[in-house]
Amino acid sequence: MADNKQVVSVKEVVIEAVAQLFEDDGFLLETDVAERAIAARLAVCLEPRFPNHHVNVEYNRHGILPKRLHLPEFGGKKLIVPDVVVHRQGHDEENLLVIQVKKETNHKSRDYDRAVIAGLKKDYGYAWGVLIDLPAGPGATKRNARLEWL
User: Fold this and answer.
1) What tens digit of pLDDT does each residue of 80-136 get?
2) Nearest CA to 141 among 1, 59, 29, 58?
């Protein structure tokens, strides 16, 4: 596990990237576009902040095989497609961060996203995970994102 300074650094970087998302792509939040589009733009904001890692959207591979988790409370074995990952492709030696993105207009429970993050940390060695709840719709850029570190 990384030391406390690195944890703070990763968290600060994600907070900065979310702020950049609001600044550069607030239109996406204000118009309540699909979560995938927002996650992709968040990845763009993250990429230069992690120069020694890959930042991928909906990366569903573990090596060359599909990423799967056993989630009995959600029906058993599931193909996992995390919204954003920061890692080194092809191995589990530097799985740094997994992000699940939700908009406040998505009223589905966040429990599945929490289970995915917990499972990816446990089974695939991601060091950090965060569920980001983003404001969406008119006035979204005047409200705050909520980051739940798991």
Assistant:
1) 999 999 999 988 889 999 999 999 999 999 999 999 999 999 999 999 999 999 999
2) 29
User: Please, are residues 67 and 56 in contact by the beta-carbon 8 Å criterion?
Assistant: no
CA–CA separation, 112 vs 53, rounded Å? Answer: 26
**Which residue is listed with tokens 């799985």?**
95
**Triad 4, 146, 86: Cα angle to 5°:** 55
CATH T-level assignment (fold) for domain 4-149 = Trna Endonuclease; Chain: A, domain 1 (3.40.1350)
Contact, 99 vs 82, CB < 8 A? yes
Using CA atoms, how far apart are residues 106 and 1, in angstroms rounded to an integer?
33
Taking CA atoms, 33 is separated from 14, 105, 110, in Å, by 21, 10, 19
pLDDT tens figures, 8-34: 599 999 999 999 999 999 999 999 999
pTM score > 0.90 for this model? yes
